[in-house]
Amino acid sequence: MAFSVLFAGALSGVATAAAPVEESRPLGGATESQTVISKISDEPVTISSSSDADDDYNGTAHLLNTIDQLRQEMMEMRGQLEEHAFRIEQLQQEGRDRYLDLDERVSRLNGQADKAAAPASVTNLKPPMVNAPVIGGGDKKYQSALKAEEAAYQSAFGLIRSKQFDKAKIALQEQLKTYPEGRYADNAHYWLGEVDMAQGHYDAAKGSFQVILNEFPKSPKVPDASYKLGRVHDLLGNQKEAKKLLELVIQQYPDSSAARLSDTYLRTMGGS
Q1: How many H helices and E strands in the chain?
Q2: DSSP assigned state of 182
Q3: What values do phi and psi take at 142, rounded to 5?
Q4: Are 272 and 250 in contact (CB under 8 A)?
Q5: Which helix (H) or strand (E) holds 107?
Q6: 168, 195 Cβ separation under 8 angstroms
Q7: Is-contact 164 138, C-beta < 8 A?
Q8: Which is higher by pLDDT, 257 or 3?
């Protein structure tokens, strides 16, 4: 019996040594709190603020709205510019058409005046004889050639009015080749210069206008040709010669439309 008590006491001592009991401590102790805080501070922490996110969103939305408004305004301005450009082109074309129509009517009036003056001059120089034709065979041939030249000129002029500039240029060149000294030769040279000028062929236009001044000094086209020649020189970069020609138009033909146009053009060049 003593042995049993002694053996039980030994086992109790072994159990006590194998399972030591630690003193319980509250979780909120200072040491453990410091350990937890240290672990948290070592990890990256992102703190998001809802107010900052809202501000960023509002700023981006405002910027996008401003860009959209600017884009809309640019589109409207572009449309206005295109509309103004179209209107200016229309006005220029209307002015050109009126000018071409006026030139055509003046040419017809000149032709009618020449036809009316021709019989009078014949009557004064050689009174018609009884039963004798007033117009001989040579005069009939001349009248036929004159009508053919006029028809060729009016055909070329019609091509200019319909803006078929390449065909008009060929027609005018053919007319000048067939009738180099005809009644409409000066007009043909002038409109040939106008066509070249409209197409940007300034050197060719300068040659056509210069021909009128050199070979047709008494032509009614001289003032207009001089004005256009001055403009061509300006477009070619020869401002000195341009001013000289424009000032000459004003001096020699002060009451002409070419003089008024020359004065206006000189003002755009920086004074006369």
Answers
A1: 10, 0
A2: S
A3: -65, -45
A4: yes
A5: helix 50-125
A6: yes
A7: no
A8: 257
CA 234-240-244 angle, 5° bins: 95
Cα distances (angstroms) measured from residue 7 to each of 4, 15, 16: 5, 13, 14
- Degrees to nearest 5, angle at CA 132 with 126 and 134: 50
Q: Is 186 exposed, middle or buried (0-12, 13-18, 19+ CB in 10 A)?
A: buried
Cα 70 to chain center, whole Å?
Answer: 24
Q: Is the distance from CB of 192 to CB of 170 less than 8 angstroms?
A: no
- Beta carbons within 8 Å of 233's beta carbon, 6+ residues apart: 206, 239, 241, 242, 245
Q: Where residue 247 falls among pLDDT bands split at 50, 70, 90?
A: very high
CA distance 232 to 226: 10
User: pLDDT tens digits, residue range 169-220?
Assistant: 999 999 999 999 999 999 999 999 999 999 999 999 999 999 999 999 999 9
In this prediction the pTM is 0.52
> Contact at 8 Å (CB) between 201 and 170?
no
Longest Cα–Cα distance in the chain = 194
C-alpha gyration radius of the chain: 51
SS3 164: coil
